[in-house]
């Protein structure tokens, strides 16, 4: 029998590079929400892939940014923790991208004592000439890393990267039960699904001023009943979220319900409410309550 391998594989990169798409492709489930807007991922989310003789614990972290308020500082703390416990780093860039937005993080990659795979994403959108040019650029920038061209969205070379991860994992017993898919509770995925629909359906500042809290999650054999509160920072934002005669909020609820029924494989009834929670993004007590500043 093969020796059992297990380890933490942490995915880092600038915003909008496709980290969540890759994580979901590896896990085979939609654990991380995906939108075209930057800063979609706010937390560090673990996705666990189990085999007979391996356990890969993948970690999707927020895109690396220069923080403008306390919430973003907390998001960057999740990235720092991903450097600290990794057995292997996946540094994801897209064609045409240069170094990380934070020089300190970039230097950590340069001087990493653990293996780093640089994943050059969205190669389906590049010519062969551009791809070769990019590989050469990154070989000069980071001579010690392995470079793997991929397309997370088209699933190109994702399996090849996963096989390389398995080769590099240390021998270890599993860290989590073998039937576990993630470290997050059900309510977390409800909150994230609702937040994804807000990111998709609203413009400008609205999605970034929103946090979701699920106050009730009651499951029986036939149905899951959910009551969630959407927090905003100002009264004017509350009106925008609700929309004319509640139409905008109703649309968010319908779209979230469809996704959650797929995720839980069960009928879902969802009630949404909107509350003003002034300046929560700069309030350390509120941030702790929402799972930041741990």
Q: What can you tell me about this protein's structure?
A:
By secondary structure, the protein is an alpha/beta fold. It has two domains: 5-168, Rossmann fold; 186-289, K homology (KH) domain (GMP Synthetase, Chain A, domain 3, 2-Layer Sandwich), CATH 3.30.300. The protein has helices at residues 19-27, 70-84, 103-110, 128-141, 158-168, 186-201, 235-242, 247-264, 284-289, and strands at 5-12, 45-51, 54-60, 88-94, 116-121, 146-149, 211-219, 223-232, 267-276. β2 and β3 (54-60) form a beta hairpin. The chain is globular and about 55 Å long. The N and C termini lie far apart (40 Å). Residues 33-40 have low confidence and may be disordered.
């Amino acid at each position: 029998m093969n020796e059992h391998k297990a380890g933490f594989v942490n995915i880092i990169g600038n915003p909008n590079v496709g980290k969540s798409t890759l994580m979901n492709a590896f896990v085979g489930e939609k654990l991380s929400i995906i939108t075209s807007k930057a800063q979609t991922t706010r937390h560090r989310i673990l996705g666990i892939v189990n085999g007979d003789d391996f356990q890969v614990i993948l970690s999707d972290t927020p895109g690396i940014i220069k923080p403008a308020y306390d919430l973003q500082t907390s998001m960057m703390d999740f990235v720092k923790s991903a450097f600290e416990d990794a057995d292997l780093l996946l540094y994801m860039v897209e064609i045409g991208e240069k170094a990380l937005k934070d020089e300190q993080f970039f230097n950590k990659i340069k001087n990493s004592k653990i293996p780093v795979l640089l994943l050059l994403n969205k190669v389906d959108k590049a010519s062969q000439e551009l791809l070769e040019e990019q590989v050469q650029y990154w070989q000069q920038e980071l001579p010690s890393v392995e470079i793997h061209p991929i397309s997370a969205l088209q699933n190109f070379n994702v399996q090849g990267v996963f096989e390389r991860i398995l080769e590099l994992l240390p021998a270890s017993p599993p860290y989590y039960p073998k039937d576990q898919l993630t470290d997050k509770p059900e309510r977390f995925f409800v909150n994230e699904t609702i937040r994804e629909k807000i990111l998709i359906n609203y413009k400008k500042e609205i999605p970034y001023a929103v946090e979701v809290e699920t106050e009730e999650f009651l499951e029986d054999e036939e149905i899951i009943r959910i009551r969630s509160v959407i927090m905003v920072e100002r009264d004017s934002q509350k009106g925008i979220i609700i929309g004319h005669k509640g139409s905008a909020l109703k649309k968010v609820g319908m779209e979230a319900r469809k996704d959650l029924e797929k995720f839980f494989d069960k009928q879902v009834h969802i009630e949404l409410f909107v509350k003003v929670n002034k300046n929560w993004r700069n309030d350390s007590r509120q941030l702790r309550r929402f799972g930041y500043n741990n």
